[in-house]
Predict the structure.
Amino acid sequence: MTTRTAPSADDFLADFRTMSGFGATANGGVDRQAASQADAAQRTWFRSILEARGFTVRFDRIGNQWGLLERVPGAPFVVVGSHMDSQPTAGRYDGAYGVLAAAHAAFRLASAWDSNERTAPKYNVAVVNWFNEEGSRFKPSMMGSSVYTGKLALADALAVTDPQGVTVGEALGAHGFLSDWEGPEAAFCAEIHIEQGRSMERDGVTIGLVHSNWAANKYEFVVHGEQAHTGSTVIADRHDALLGASLLVVAAREIADAFPGKVHTSVGQLDVHPNSPVVVPSRVQLLLDLRSADEDALAEADAMLHRRVAEAEKAASVQVERRTSHSWPVTPYQPEGVELAAKAAADLGLPYKEVMTLAGHDSTNMKDLVPTVMLFVPSVDGISHNEHEYTTDEDIVAGLAMLTEVVGRLCDGALED
Amino acid sequence: MTTRTAPSADDFLADFRTMSGFGATANGGVDRQAASQADAAQRTWFRSILEARGFTVRFDRIGNQWGLLERVPGAPFVVVGSHMDSQPTAGRYDGAYGVLAAAHAAFRLASAWDSNERTAPKYNVAVVNWFNEEGSRFKPSMMGSSVYTGKLALADALAVTDPQGVTVGEALGAHGFLSDWEGPEAAFCAEIHIEQGRSMERDGVTIGLVHSNWAANKYEFVVHGEQAHTGSTVIADRHDALLGASLLVVAAREIADAFPGKVHTSVGQLDVHPNSPVVVPSRVQLLLDLRSADEDALAEADAMLHRRVAEAEKAASVQVERRTSHSWPVTPYQPEGVELAAKAAADLGLPYKEVMTLAGHDSTNMKDLVPTVMLFVPSVDGISHNEHEYTTDEDIVAGLAMLTEVVGRLCDGALED
């Protein structure tokens, strides 16, 4: 095995600039929805940089892209990565940074093992680009890691359709991103991501050690009214589905305001039917989320929401159907992983603190399968899911160094037992 | 000229059943948006029944379909008709009834003139199927009659695009529904339509004589917020365009409730951007209407709306742009036309009353060009813009008799001077 020089921080930044060109938008963001042309082009480029460094690139049965470096034949893998798909008008860092940092961390470790700077590892390394973390084109989000961890049935995931009726299976198959393989055996996992909040920037720390995630209750409501003429139908005769839906959007904010700083609520998606200028809407479908770090506050907020649903039904003379619901509690990442990461940050001289994640990540799934370390770097002004999302070069380079050290220690077996 | 027997009421009902098959939906309604395949198929069928009765069928420069019966060479025309396009999930009667009744009224008059049951007319008859009255695929509504009456520039109308980017000109051209012709010269106009309200049913009258239309203010608002992550972005940092829009929807209803029975408000169309589950919406576009028969009440309601817009901007930390606005006052149909129709109804023994129209119609445009008679038949339960829209066979046959008599008298010159 020949020793290769590890890519430099400048090489990393150059690769990141290249990535940001895939699906680039006019306002400095990206549009790389899952299995789109831009997503596919970026995956093809990512394959090339992995293969150039001697990694074996494979796609599994749900289109997760794996770069395998097997230095210990037959041993399980330390899985490190994130996702390269994006929201429709997204920033450059969300997910993409974590995948590229994972690859460069693995490149650095390979060189260090080759040159005997580091002792030979006990585990292999698998760089992963999870499929469809964002869930904007195909629902639900975190699809690739959900199938890999057994939380979502493969057949159900492959049958999901986008708004044009294209299935996940068709979209992945068209790009050659599917196989029968279940993916490598994981022993440990690590992920790095931007914070998507202001707390680390405010406190002046470079590395966030994620100790747990916020709890969330997510609902898909369908408001059923009755189609009528907007001009001639008297108000008392109306069953206005959009009025009912709007009352829920307003209620969601009022509920958040009742728990200042403790409960986050939102409606990100809302579809009106038939959505014609002179027709009272007959049906509105919307997605409403409640999130909190405090499970008791979340339960209170949820009870308020259900009272408000009943009030909206009455006020707009509509029926509100709770079509689907999905919730998760506050769950910890393994404390020994947080401890390992704290030691690594201290050894590297990087300022750090423990944080919670408000958003879901693929590591949220992985931590239920294997011990998992989740790291954050700061987000300038906390901007996220926005083309103006930004993290400094200094911070993303520091995060790469941190991730390299964490993955190196995981490969050394630091979390065994 | 050979005398042809006039089609019977049963023939009329059979033709109406045939029409209701074009674009028929599973729930008993129709989907015949302007220049769609279903609209085109129905126009082709309509041409055939007009030509079978000796009418000359022509399309004008904005795709209005004309059936001309020229019995007085060189004389202007009594224009009678409505529209055959529909909302996406519409009822069978709206517009379509008025076009078919116009054709059968003309067939009956032609036979009556041929057989000398009626004295020879002083004016010709033009049956018209106005293009795109509904405005669901191409905005604005009442497009064909607006161009014909000079209220909308031809070039502007032809350049309007549907959500797929197809222009009116392309859509009409693809079906061969365009020419350079400006349409026939109108002297008088008549239209019959379903009431789309409950007042006639409640009062037990068969014929409504429309004396004026409600005033309306219509606005296109665009709410500008900022895209953010629904989970991680703290509430105070959000600029939620959907919250701002929802406050406007709720305000619209509260304004209507402040003027019980006097002001109608609605938001029929609302589009969210980027409309993704975990993204705080950055932009929402919506159409908001205020209508009233009382112009003072409308002005008060409008002032309330503008106060509420400012409040919504503050509450949701968004900017609300008033992109377009369009309004019309209460305007009368010519009183001598109402009087003519009242005499005709009395002579036919049909119970009638004067009514206002809350909805816009092509006759709303035509009345500003020539003396125009607008007639209603009742709507069961007032249901409109809904697949369950219904008017009894008895009432649509009575309306046909009424329309025949009105058009006959207009052709006789009853409204001259």
